[in-house]
Amino acid sequence: MDAKFQYLLRQGDNALILSQQLCQMVGKGPALEEDMALSNVALDLLGQTRMWLTYAGELEGKGRDEDRLAFLRDAHDYRSCLLVEQPNGSYADTLTRQFLFDTWHYFLMDGLTKSSDERIREIAAKSIKEVTYHLRRSGDLVVRLGDGSDKSRAMMQTALDELWMYSGEMFLYDEIDNAMVEQGVAPAVDSIRKQCLDHMADIFSEATLTMPSPDAWMQRGGKQGRHSERLGFILAEMQFLQRAYPGAAW
Fold it and tell me: 110 phi and psi, to 5 degrees?
């Protein structure tokens, strides 16, 4: 149970932290249409968070529902990857982070639709429809800006070079990932990695961007609860109301 519980937390925490980050971009998009799109992606991810954390709480059996898991855990108890907690920065940074995550997220959800766990299959089947749109949208924008003006291409290349070191953690597997693969709950990480890298290579080529080496050194630790200090600031804002007024409802 513990391995599956941790695996569910990883999925829910990734979606939750990225959703919170995107919510901070509301009103800051380069165009009204893109501002609305970022808000919609954030809401989609928040809905997915609820499904993952609800199941995690039920599986744990300690009375913690989705809200308690989201608002009453400290940073070291979060299992999100380091990529999603990176600063929003410029729009190029936000978009590049989103595309890297969307690519991994899409192929993972596709694999999870074949999970041996019925509940996970159901969550993945609901999520894949939204994630398909997320990947198509972010991929299209990467191409438009990468193959755009000299300035937009330079900003996208800089963002890619700086964020790439955080992308590899999504493909690193530990005992929890191994247990899920052995039980047929999750797809093999190696197969997802190849699919993701192939898709990224196609998009970056079309965008006239130079893709960094997949074998470059990668940051790691988020999946095990070792985060940057930035996650603490994200959670401080997100959890303030529930921490200040426990059990608050309206």
Answer: -60, -40
Per-residue pLDDT of 140-165, as tens digits, reads: 999 999 999 999 999 999 999 999 99
CB within 8 A of 192, min separation 6: which ones?
A: 104, 107, 108, 111, 171
The DSSP string of 48-115 is HHHHHHHHHHHHHTSS--HHHHHHS--GGG----GGGGS---SHHHHHHHHHHHHHHHHHHHHHHTT-
What number is the average pLDDT over the span 96-118?
A: 98
Where in the chain are the domains? 2-244
- 2-244 has CATH 1.20.1260.10 classification: yes
CB 143 within 8 A of CB 207: yes
Residues 6+ apart with CB under 8 A from 3: 175, 176, 179, 180
Return the structure tokens found at 148: 């755009």
- Report the pLDDT averaged over residues 32-46: 92
| Residue 159 CA: distances (Å) to CA of 14, 94, 227, 231 | 20, 9, 20, 20
Q: Residue 90: left if φ>0, alpha if ψ -120 to 50, beta else—which one?
A: beta
For residue 203, CA distances in Å to 54, 82, 142, 163, 185 come to 35, 23, 8, 16, 30
Q: pTM surpassing 0.70? A: yes
